[in-house]
Amino acid sequence: MTIAVLSALIRPLVEPRLPAWVEPRWFLSQEEALDLAPQAEIGWFDFPRPEPMVEVVTAATNLRWLNSIYAGLDFLPLHLLHERGVTVTNGAGINAVTIAEYVVMMMLAHAKGLPEVVRAQDRRDWLHDSPGKRELAGERVLLLGLGAIGSLIRTRLEAFGMEVTAVRRSAAGGALGPHEWRARLGEFDWIILAVPATPETERMIGADELAAMKGTAVLVNVARGSVVDQQALVSALAQRRIEAALLDVTDPEPLPPGHPLWAAANALLTMHLSGRAQTKMFARSADRFVENLARWHAGEPVQPQMDLLRGY
Predict the structure, then answer these.
(1) Long-range contacts of range 165-174, CB-CB < 8 Å, 24 or more positions apart?
(2) Catalytically active residues, by annotation
């Protein structure tokens, strides 16, 4: 028997489908998870906050496979997991559809001035002209990151008639490489960040990159707040060096009430809701976990596996 320590939140979706060789042990709290963690050969230790996950994962000294619903696990002790030889499957792709849809929503909301329209409705003010006159069709997009999320963003924006240039680790199929995109920033109307959080991507958009963008450029971030130098962004927005920033993520989260981004007229904040704007996340994660159990038992690779040294 293989001991699997699992969150009771996914018990109804998983328990009836567990194979006979798995002995499940369920937890409802961080304390219960910590108590069970050393027994776990397979673990699914998701919590809403990073700190309990780090503590439980560190205590799981017999762990062979860690599963998570979250795509970004950069907060975990990845080097420790690598040293222990733990296989890690994350939630890459689980929320890709809803995040890609969220990007389109934010872009259209900005292009058509939807926030101003909503405020006018609140005032019962009948507008006689549109506050937003931008059309997505024909505009140029620089898409940094072409994983599960980035790939879906590209197809959706291309359906609007946008010209999308992607940036990926290997420059192939028309994509730019990691050392090519900065020199071309001034060519694009929209810059979309869909990269993983790694040391290489930390503050990849800073004062120099913002200065190189068009004055009418719009920055869209659905990656992590850490990939943008937030102080430099606040300054660029205040001085109107770029047109706007559409931010699903910030640094820190939640954003403190007095932070200047809240009051920036040319910033749209969506509070890291993009992955939550759907109801199928747990069902998709449960399906993937059960399928991976069969692969694990057969000695086949489970998917999608994280590269623990790269961080994604």
Answers:
(1) 165/140, 165/141, 167/142, 167/143
(2) 224, 253, 272
